[in-house]
Amino acid sequence: MALFVFFARVVPGFAFDERIVFDPYTGLSLGGYDPVAYFTDGTAVRGNDENEIVLGDTFWHFANKGNADAFRSSPQTYVPGFGGYSPLGIARGVPQPGSPIIFAIYDNRVYLFASEDDRNTFIADPAAAVAAAKAEWPNVLKLLAY
Length: 146
Description:
The protein is an alpha+beta fold.
């Protein structure tokens, strides 16, 4: 199955990452996985369209109403760092979408990775990985379409 990635502007006043990875055919962020479940369940959990929120022109699915409510009240807490792009890809100057099932939580933020190797590299020194990605992020944003 091919994954197509497009980018969305986040809603005004919703300031963190300026682009969110999503599938242009479904409009789903995170491939339909629940962004709150990374924190509550410690694993990737599929959401459903009964618990759906539209944010930043993308659809976010949640496993239950409580998770949807938590996201609605504090989306900046649950949207993946760098909009779902792999921080190691960003640090290399490449907007590489992360997989919603390969993740790590660091400093109360979830990060997605394109591979287990990238995840393991991140875990070895997450502070350095995030700092390198933050330094390169403005340059990578120039490569991304609205």
